[in-house]
Amino acid sequence: MQVVKILGLQHNFTRRIQDLREADLLAASKLRCTITPLVSNALGIFSPAITLAVYAVISVALGGNLETETAFTTMAILSMVTHPANMAMTIVPRAVTAFSGFEKIQAFLLRESLQTDRGTLPKGSTAIQIQQLRISYKQLVLEHIDIEVAAGSLAIISGPTGSGKSTLLRAILREVLPVRGTISLSTRQIAYCAQKPWLPNGTIKDAIRGATEIYSASDPDNEKWYHEVTDMCCLTHDFDSLPHGDLTRIGSGGLNLSGGQKQRVALARALFAKCDILLLDDTFSGLDGEIEQTIFDKLFGMLGLTRRLETTVVLVSNSSQYFQAADNIVVLGNHRIIDQGSWQDIRVKAASIAKFSSGHHTSDKAVLSANSDELSARLRTKGETEIDLARQTGDPALYGNFPIMFMDATNMSLGYYLSSIDFMNIFFIITSTVSYAFFISIPQYWLRLWTEFGGRNTAFYVCGFVLLSTLSWISTSAQMW
């Protein structure tokens, strides 16, 4: 929606969507007119009128009259019978849908159980063990992958674009199933930070800590850990510059945060979980050089946070400046491992990584990132609340001149739908509702008058009863339409 508004296409899209909706309503109008008013309501409304009319005509033909006891007893019985019958008509399509769902559930339950070659390593020296891994879709992605990551160590996976680095992390997460080979882990407590992280539309603090019901704000240990994690990810300065600090709303898709801020929030979320294994998919690519170096040293340096917690870290990165801090470096290429070992072991073969690795970030990248952060901060300072409110409720310009009482955030959606109904439509709905309530009740009194006059003037009262039922049916059909 932000792109649509920037390009000035808001009204064009609104008109186009409105035209499509009108075409949809027109195409379905015959179906609604036939099924909804006629079938759903006709049974309950016309059954008493038709039954009494037939009974009255037969009674007159046989020389009898319509008696009060007979008339009202018949009405009561019909009322008890027609309502369940009407409900049964609406249950049929639901039952068909339910049986269709049962078939899907049965097909799922009858499938063979998923067999995954995932072993469990004992707590000890090895945290991740990959043996003879092969992954392929329509084309081969990885094969002959053998990796062993020691517990509490830092492993860096490097390689050119498309070499399967992210796929390897997803295989460790069990999001990608290998064709062959095994992946064994010492724990199931794994934190993952994607290259393009997903952040919920809440406050930054909630995104990092998780649900407030789980991590209570009153817990001093969690609060202390939260502040330590945000400091490690260099978010403290950002909180000071944001209008509401860490209570600033992220916005849909991280609308109110820059790319680097989203990466750091996702990293803080992964660290806050205190998992034994931490998987980072090129997490530092969106950061400028100074912040990237600071975070790396705080987390993965000799006295870094992950070293102190003995967290096993697998980092996807092509920044060779960090290779010397890694305990194990895996270089991917041509769908396989082309080199593996410590930095001391592979730096003599620097040609294997020189083509795709990058050193320190250039000043141009830092300037671009700084400009992006500055622009984002300006936008948030000027109107973060209005941006996020517009994201949640839509553009107020679409609401026309609807009364201001519907312009608060809670009732904005209701106000939008009601604003599309003009005065004549509202008057029509109210009139139809009142008419239905009137015509559905009057036949009871009409029947009493009929019986009080001894059942005479049968044709007059029968026509009146049928007419009232017809008007009732028309009113409720118009109301539903």
From TrEMBL:
The chain crosses the membrane at residues 426-446, 458-476. It is found in: Membrane. Pfam families: ABC_tran (PF00005). It is a multi-pass membrane protein. This is AAA+ ATPase domain-containing protein. Residues 151-342 form the AAA+ ATPase domain. InterPro entries: AAA+_ATPase, ABC1_TM_sf, ABC_transporter-like_ATP-bd, ABC_transporter-like_CS, ABC_transporter_C-like, P-loop_NTPase. One of its GO terms (cellular component) is membrane. One of its GO terms (molecular function) is ATP hydrolysis activity. Keywords: ATP-binding, Membrane, Nucleotide-binding, Transmembrane, Transmembrane helix.
